[in-house]
Amino acid sequence: MCGIVGYIGSKDITSVLLSSLWKLEYRGYDSSGIAVIENGELKVVKSVGKLMTLQEKLSKERIEGSVGIGHTRWATHGEPSDHNAHPQTDCNEKFAVVHNGIIENYYTLKEKLIKRKHIFQSTTDTEVIAHLIEENYNGDLKDAVLRTVKKLEGSYAIAVLSPYEDDKIIAYRKGSPLIIGVGNNENLLASDIPAVISHTKNIIIMEDDELAVIKRDTIEIFNQKGEKKPLKINKIEWEPESIEKGEFKHFMLKEIFEQPEVIRRNISLRIVDNKLNFGDSFRFNKKELSNITNIVIQACGTSWHAGYIGKYLLEDIARINTEVDISSEFRYRNPVYGGETLVIAISQSGETADTLAGLREAKAKFLKVLSFVNVMGSTISRESDSTIYLNAGPEIGVASTKAFTSQILNIYLFTLYLARIKWRLEDEEINEKFALIKELPDKIKVVLNNNERIKEIAGIFKDKKNFIFLGRGINYPVALEGALKLKEISYVHATGYPAGELKHGPLALIDKETPVIAIATSSNVYEKMLNNLEEVKARNGIIIAISNMNDEKVKKIADYIIEVPYVIEHLSPIINVIPLQLFAYHLADMNGRDVDKPRNLAKSVTVE
Ligand code: F6R
């Protein structure tokens, strides 16, 4: 939540800061701003509203300078407004601060600062940082920041700029992500790689409690005591084009259409010479895993849905007792752990605050943690004992799509791995499954080829105010995911239900106004699903069914059919979710919603 950028070098400062901010807009978009040192003075320009309003403001006034910071905000403390937009400054406008995260003790700090005659302009927690730096500054900005962070509680990433030391940006990370782009006679700072990738592929991922002094031609990293640390530079493999929309109207649509490639990439990285390979970040040995008797999966939102699918897979294939919980619940309950428990954290961003807290809870109880994460080097991956990366490439649309299908595939592969270790499957059986997995990319393409028909159906229902999504078994979490996709980007109410539960209450909602989207593909509960759909039909419900090709039984019951190719039940969520993603996309787009940046949301939820 919130995006931070910084630049020092000789390129046009406003265009570098703005173009970097555009790449981070997914992290927050209720206000934005920049601070640049111009002719020895701090110049701050900020604006409430989407980044376009800041861009328009900046197009009217030219700012010259070679060092600056910027921010795009997702409000936590203080409503979105010009005053609350970052950068925040001290009383004399000598220190500008941009911040991602929450200062939990800001209220006490602010009261004390006010008593000491500091004048506040905003209602943010961030402004206390600028005033504390003002008090702590004694001719050394690095020192002032180190002294300031000692007083802060919470999790945060900050960047600080001051005309007193106009040759540098100071950055500090504690709990919220920060990376440094290492350039040639220029350097950059950002919350995420997309903001710097068009300038450099050489990245330093800052760790917690590290301070960086970023100058035009040097970068120095210090620990919280001010001791210098060695630099670790990573090379990013992906191309800048992967963060452009290309021919697509929205990132979400592009990312839905990338799924055949994402699945193909995972297959070629994970199945090598008919053996599973989870890469260097997977550090468990077979012995440790063979002792596992229980698994607890914890995640949020779409990642939780993938975890729920994982429960069906792990129990059915590897025969391991598996619980799945929403991280914000998991972290505050007091679970009873029996036997050898493995905790799995699933996260696209690798920064989700609740999932991270759940991971830390598990580690505090000395449990092993495996994470499935998309963003390389993110906090969740660094704090886990082992990580399986999702290789989905950057996901920019706020609604998660390609990360979800690669989460399911990687969990499925991990399940096969465990099943082999625990002698539940023979090599031959696993090889047969590999062959089926390899058919997935082409089968996904078949679904994508049906895009126009799905759009047509979305058009028919675009004015409906309520939707019910039904699934059973391993496709029940897919129904939850279909409902989540629709509500988050179209703002239409949608609920996902296990179809067998309908008659215990929700059947009362069925009438001719409420479309029911049902997953009715081949499975061990297929006939049961048909019975449930008959119950809906008998109450004049309108049924849109996801069915396998030429399924005459479903055709007789449903009003609209979206056909998908047959795959085995365990892999069916990967295929069945795609029409639901497209349905949600088109319905939202037809209603003029900002699909990639739905209201009130942000891509990376780094606050509780
Ligand atoms: C929905 C969506 C969210 C995320 C959730 C967890 O489309 O994207 O529900 O899945 O905020 O985020 P990660 O996976 O980054 O931990």
Automatic annotation (TrEMBL):
Catalytic reaction annotation: D-fructose 6-phosphate + L-glutamine = D-glucosamine 6-phosphate + L-glutamate
GO MF annotations, alphabetized: carbohydrate derivative binding; glutamine-fructose-6-phosphate transaminase (isomerizing) activity
Taxonomy, superkingdom: Bacteria
The protein, known as: Glutamine--fructose-6-phosphate aminotransferase [isomerizing]
Self-association state and partner proteins as the record states: Homodimer.
Annotated ranges, domain Glutamine amidotransferase type-2: 2-217
EC number(s) per entry: 2.6.1.16
HAMAP family documented for this protein: GlmS (MF_00164)
Native species: candidate division WOR-3 bacterium
Active site: 2, 603
Main location: cytoplasm
